[in-house]
């Protein structure tokens, strides 16, 4: 299933770009990429998945081929959650499954708790449904301040042209900043994440999007427990053995937040929750898609759909 089609959904600030595999008559699966990535993150995995599904991978606003937000409109976590609702409405999907990598998993997780009747299955690829505030209380106000200062600084520099790099220089910089991405996958992400200009390449992403902690909503353990109890979906969490455990990498040795969330998911969902560890790093779904394809495929094909509303 290597053939795909490009789709654009109109939104007030422009469009959301998506790429789709399979027949629109198939069971729908919305695929959500990670921080600063784009829909090409699923290029190596989706061809290995069952063909009786309709996979639509979207570029979040300001990423890939999607429009940048309007001037003055900040990139906030809840805005990305809202983009899922916009795309599902444009596709006329009342109920669908979500597969999210990293940041895409946290956005999809929040959506599945806010709109529980709409999500059949939630697949988290080296991700968790939320980012917890338990390690972050002393930093939360600083993050909000820095996010605002960063935006104002970029607005002042808005007339400066985007930096142009040679394809090789851009690839090497990308790989240096994304140590878990192999070179072939780096090239794939840049195919959609950069645009050719006469003197080289420029990145497509909005420069207002910087550090994930400036955008994430960090929630309390109490809200996490409450939200997870709202889930109607079956949940599969695939943890890469060499993956990440925290939004901020300097906290990555602390597995406490992940353990809390997996324990909460087990307690609330029982047999509706599955946890699988696979060998690989944070981009295992892209670097070694065969490590996750059979697990994801079996989960999607299992006959556990939430009952239709009367």
From TrEMBL:
Q: Which GO terms describe its molecular function?
A: hydrolase activity
Q: Output the superkingdom of the source species.
A: Eukaryota
GO CC annotation: what is one? Answer: membrane
Q: Which InterPro entries match?
A: AB_hydrolase_1 (IPR000073), AB_hydrolase_fold (IPR029058), AB_hydrolase_sf (IPR050266)
**Which UniProt key words apply to this protein?**
Hydrolase
Checking Pfam families in the record gives: Abhydrolase_1 (PF00561)
Give all residue intervals belonging to the AB hydrolase-1 domain.
Answer: 28-136
What protein family is recorded? Belongs to the AB hydrolase superfamily.
- Full protein name: Serine hydrolase like 2
């Amino acid at each position: 299933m290597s053939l795909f089609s490009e789709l654009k959904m109109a939104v007030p600030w422009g469009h959301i770009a998506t790429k789709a595999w399979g027949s629109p008559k198939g069971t729908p699966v919305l695929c959500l990429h990670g921080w600063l990535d784009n829909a090409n993150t699923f290029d190596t995995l989706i061809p290995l998945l069952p063909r009786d599904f309709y996979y639509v991978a979207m570029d979040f606003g300001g990423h890939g081929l999607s429009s940048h937000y309007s001037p003055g409109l900040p990139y906030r976590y809840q805005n990305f959650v809202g983009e899922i609702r916009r795309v599902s409405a444009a596709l006329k999907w009342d109920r669908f499954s979500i597969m999210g990598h990293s940041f895409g998993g946290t956005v999809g997780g929040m959506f599945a708790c806010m709109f529980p009747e709409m999500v059949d299955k939630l697949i988290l690829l080296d991700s968790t449904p939320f980012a917890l505030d338990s390690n972050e209380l002393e930093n939360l106000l600083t993050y909000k301040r820095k996010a605002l200062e960063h935006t104002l600084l970029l607005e002042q520099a808005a007339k400066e042209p985007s930096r142009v790099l040679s394809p090789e220089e851009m690839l090497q910089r990308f790989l240096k900043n994304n140590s878990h991405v192999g070179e072939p996958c780096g090239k794939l992400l840049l195919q959609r994440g950069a645009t050719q200009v006469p003197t080289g390449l420029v990145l497509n992403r909005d420069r207002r999007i910087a550090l994930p902690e400036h955008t994430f909503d960090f929630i309390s353990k109490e809200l996490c427990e409450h939200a997870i109890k709202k889930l109607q979906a079956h949940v599969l969490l695939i943890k890469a053995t060499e993956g990440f455990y925290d939004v901020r990498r300097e906290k990555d040795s602390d597995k406490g937040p992940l353990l809390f969330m997996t324990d909460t998911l087990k307690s609330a969902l029982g047999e509706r929750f599955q946890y699988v560890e696979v060998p690989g790093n944070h981009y295992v779904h892209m670097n070694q898609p065969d490590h996750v394809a059979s697990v994801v495929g079996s989960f999607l094909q299992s006959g556990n759909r939430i009952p239709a509303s009367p």
